[in-house]
């Protein structure tokens, strides 16, 4: 808390009172700390792949790996992967910054949840099959249309489904379902029976770069920004996003999206 005193003086400079201002700076300080942490995180996340790229290029250049085609090709593979990681990271950062500055144009329109969710399911069926993950899609027929931007909702679903697949071991399952809530909003749930998230990490999980296990996330190609982006998009629709999880048992993410106005729905 910041304290400020200002004496109240008569024209004769005689003090007749004191103005005391108490300012709660907790929120300000929190934002400032978060901003500093964010810059430190970005720098670290960009420096890590760069360091790897540099050391592999040096090994090629000075270590004689160029003379061994197999080794050279492996080293080049690593540098390409790391460059791709940087591209993903920068794309995610740019997207977050556009969302922050409200520069993203949302082309909201009435959408049928079934169409959106079936298309999302189609994008993930193959990946699930490859990893021997059971994939279930369960949708109610009578869902109302939602008022949402297709591209951005697709991205939210892709981020959440790819997490479900990434953090779920072989032989387990992932499901996608939707229902209408009492308040009219459509709730979409993405559930998995994967590794889960410890209780202590749950409240910070939507923060930028917050990850339960950095090494695991990195090895899966994660940037640590997927959930933060999903949250921004859902909130820009007037919806909510929540995560429930039990460590080593599984995770469910629920998003809610507003239905169309009644007159639009019935047209
Ligand atoms: P990342 O690119 O690391 O996956 P996200 O922002 O998408 O970044 O997720 C942040 C972290 O939340 C992940 O690193 C992981 O620790 C945890 N997480 C997200 N989804 C799941 C899930 N379905 N199961 C277990 N952990 C998850």
TrEMBL record:
GO MF terms held by the record: ATP binding; phosphorelay response regulator activity; phosphorelay sensor kinase activity; protein kinase activator activity
Keyword line: ATP-binding, Cell membrane, Kinase, Membrane, Nucleotide-binding, Phosphoprotein, Transferase, Transmembrane, Transmembrane helix, Two-component regulatory system
Highest taxon above the source species: Bacteria
An individual GO BP term: osmosensory signaling via phosphorelay pathway
Domain spans labelled Histidine kinase: 41-261
Location of this chain's protein in the cell: Cell membrane
GO cellular component, one term: plasma membrane
Subcellular location, principal: membrane
Name this protein carries in UniProt: histidine kinase
Originating species: Melghirimyces thermohalophilus
Residues of the full protein shown: 334 to 600 of 600
């Amino acid at each position: 808390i910041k304290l400020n005193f200002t004496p109240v003086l008569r024209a004769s400079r005689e003090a007749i009172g004191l103005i005391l201002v108490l300012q709660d700076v907790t929120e300000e300080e929190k934002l400032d700390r978060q901003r500093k942490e964010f810059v430190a995180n970005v720098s670290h996340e960009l420096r890590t792949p760069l360091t790897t790229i540099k050391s592999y290029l040096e090994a090629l250049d000075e270590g004689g790996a160029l003379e061994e085609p197999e080794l050279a090709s492996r080293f080049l593979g690593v540098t390409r992967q790391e460059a791709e990681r940087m591209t993903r990271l920068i794309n995610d950062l740019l997207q977050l910054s556009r969302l922050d500055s409200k520069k993203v144009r949302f082309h909201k329109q009435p959408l049928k949840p079934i169409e959106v969710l079936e298309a999302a399911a189609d994008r993930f069926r193959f990946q699930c099959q490859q990893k021997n993950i059971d994939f279930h899609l369960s949708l109610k027929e009578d869902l109302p249309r939602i008022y949402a931007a297709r591209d951005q909702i697709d991205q939210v679903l892709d981020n959440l489904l790819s997490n479900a697949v990434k953090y779920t071991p072989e032989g387990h399952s992932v499901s996608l379902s939707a229902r209408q809530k009492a308040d009219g909003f459509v709730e979409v749930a993405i559930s998995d029976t994967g590794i889960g998230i410890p209780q202590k990490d749950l409240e910070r999980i939507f923060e930028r770069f917050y990850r339960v296990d950095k090494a695991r996330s990195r090895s899966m190609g994660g940037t640590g920004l997927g959930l933060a982006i999903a949250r921004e998009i859902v909130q820009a629709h007037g919806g909510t996003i929540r995560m429930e999880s039990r460590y080593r048992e599984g995770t469910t993410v629920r998003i809610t999206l507003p239905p169309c106005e009644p007159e639009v729905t019935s047209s």
